[in-house]
Amino acid sequence: MTAGLATEATREETMAREFKLPDIGEGVHEGEVVKWFVKEGDAVKENDPVVEVMTDKVTVQIPSPVTGKILQLRAKEGEVVKVGSTLIVFGEAGEAVPTRPEAARPTAPPPAPARTVAPPAPSPTGDILAAPAVRRLAKELNVNLAAIRGSGPQGRLSEDDVRKAAHGPARTTVVAPPPAVAVAPGGSEQRIPIHGLRKRIFEKMAKSNVTAAHFTYVEEVDMTQLVHLRDHLKPTADRKGVKLTFLPFFVKAILAALVEFPTLNASVDDERGEIVVKGYYNIGIATATDEGLTVTVVHDADKKGLWDLAKEIERLAAAARDKKLSLQEVQGSTFTITSLGKEGGIFATPIINWPEVAILGIHKIEKRPVVRDDQIAIREMMYMSCSFDHRVVDGHVGAAFVQAVRNYLEHPATIFVETG
Question: For 193-208, what is the mean pLDDT?
Answer without folding.
Answer: 77
